[in-house]
Amino acid sequence: QVQLVESGGGLVQAGASLRLSCAASGRASSTYMMAWFRRAPGKEREFVVSISLTGGIAYNQGSVKGRFTISRDTVRNTAYLQMNNLDPEDTAVYYCAGSSRWASRSVNEYQYWGQGTQVTVSS
Hints:
- By secondary structure, the protein is mainly beta.
- It is built from no helices and 11 strands.
- Strands 2, 4, 5, 6, 9, 10 and 11 form a 7-stranded mixed sheet that branches. It has a 4-stranded antiparallel sheet with strand order 1-3-8-7, with no helix packed on it.
- Strand 7 and strand 8 (78-83) form a beta hairpin.
């Protein structure tokens, strides 16, 4: 089993930056794919970005490309989401997700989930 714990959320003003962290424990070495999803108030959970163990990255092109950057430290079993130039539309609960095999953008493809961290961007 794999446990994921997010941290780094908070309340910031528009244009600010935040870095989220997702620490994997347990059978962390089996987490081939790690990803970030988010759920804004009144909306469904949305794919943000993913990264594989070999460094392959896929972004949600429409909303975050160019502002958000994912990275992964395989020694520390931790994934990061650097978020720059934040906009009030980025306000959401951000979830870290993991999969033991390659996964795309579907929530259903990820077996492991963190509890979520709140990001609130004020205008």
